[in-house]
Specification:
single chain; mainly alpha; 2 domains; 83% helix; cadmium ion transmembrane transporter activity
Length: 273
């Protein structure tokens, strides 16, 4: 009975993976399309006016958008694409984080708890910056978001890479050795860039590092020491995830061993009887 249930769970898991890949193809396609359009609009605006205007506040960015896109429909389309992309990213991150925490850390947290946790983590800094510096603080937070994302990129790649390369979890959907090698090289590059980035934040003297340190008139929404701690903690956490074994893989291995032992013991009991 345990062996049969193990095989049934394994087959259903393979089918659920296939259905999950097909269901998320549409969302992933539109997510990256929306993100590309938003980044294209921002980069086009910056490239067109970088030599004339200096953007210091969120109001300056809005005025620049109104100057570049004279049509009144363009800001609405930009806002719709931004909201649509952010919601799809949120839904995808909630589902993928649920899979990662279940197979990597061995914890089963509900999707609602994941969704609420992500919303709280996104809302608290926004409220803090808005209350501290107003619209300028929110604008500085928007600028710092890519910086914070670079901190979490190496530690975000490792769980996906470990799960995608696990034969016991992915089965026939396991990535090939060629893709696995490329993914590992990409992780090493991102980790190396993150180390250089952390060193630049600690010892750099460029204009943007001076802004982070508070040496200019630009409001500081996150203290420089907090950014240093975040960068060091992210590097340490990424290295910790590299050496952490998959909990679900170890559990499946134990279940498979018990199943094989029961199959060996069954003929012996029949012969004895």
């Amino acid at each position: 009975m345990p062996c049969m249930s193990y095989m049934q769970v394994q087959r259903s898991h393979v089918h659920s993976l296939g259905a999950l890949f097909h269901d998320h193809l549409f969302s992933i396609l539109f997510t990256f399309t929306g993100v590309f359009l938003v980044n294209y609009v921002l980069l086009s605006s910056a490239a067109a006016e970088s030599s004339h205007n200096v953007i210091l506040t969120f109001h300056d960015a809005v005025e620049l958008m109104n100057e570049i896109f004279t049509s009144s429909i363009a800001p609405l389309v930009f806002l719709a694409v931004l909201l649509f992309s952010s919601h799809i990213i949120t839904l995808t991150s909630v589902i993928t984080s649920h899979v990662v925490t279940e197979h990597f850390f061995g914890t089963n947290v509900s999707l609602f708890a994941h969704h609420v946790l992500l919303k709280i983590l996104a809302t608290i800094p926004a409220i803090y910056c808005a209350r501290l510096e107003g619209s300028e603080g929110v604008y500085q937070l928007i600028i710092l978001c890519p910086v914070i994302q670079t901190f979490t990129l190496p530690s975000s790649v490792i769980p996906i890479f470990r799960i995608a390369s696990s034969m016991s979890i992915m089965g026939n959907y396991k990535i090939s050795l060629y893709v696995e090698t490329l993914a590992f090289i990409a992780f090493c590059l991102t980790l190396f860039v993150n180390i250089i980035f952390a060193a630049e934040i600690m010892f750099g003297e460029s204009a943007w590092t001076n802004n982070l340190k508070g040496n200019t008139e630009t409001p500081v929404v996150i203290p420089h020491s907090v950014l240093i701690l975040m960068s060091c903690a992210s590097i340490a956490f990424a290295l910790f995830l590299v050496v952490t074994p998959l909990n679900s893989s170890s559990r499946k291995t134990e279940t498979h061993d018990l199943c094989m032992d029961s199959q060996r013991e069954a003929p012996e009991e029949i012969q004895r009887s």
